[in-house]
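[Structure tokenization] protein backbone as discrete codes
[Encoding] learned vocabulary of local backbone shapes
[Protein] chain in single-letter code, fold in tokens
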Amino acid sequence: QVQLVESGGGLVQPGGSLRLSCAASGFTFSSYAMSWYRQAPGKERELVATITSAGGNTNYALSVKGRFTISRDNAKNTVYLQMNSLKPEDTAVYYCRAATWLGVHWGQGTQVTVSS
């Protein structure tokens, strides 16, 4: 079955950096676009970034553009989210998402907390 496992979250000070990883299995990873979403307490889940199947095109939420970079390694079935210049408002649970012919799949999420 499809599995998405996020890692790399944690506590970081404002202005710091983190790199999230999402290891995928159970589907042909290189055939599908991948996305990162986040959900802050009391707020709806929102799209952060998307990358096409071969990695040639990316899109970002305006709130993270210029600070976050999504990338993927199809040989490792892994998608990444490099987060720089982190702000307290980036605090959220970050989720990896894949939409395949089997349906929409989510990881369990990884907590990112930006605080001094």
In short: The chain has a mean pLDDT of 97. The two ends are 40 Å apart (CA to CA).
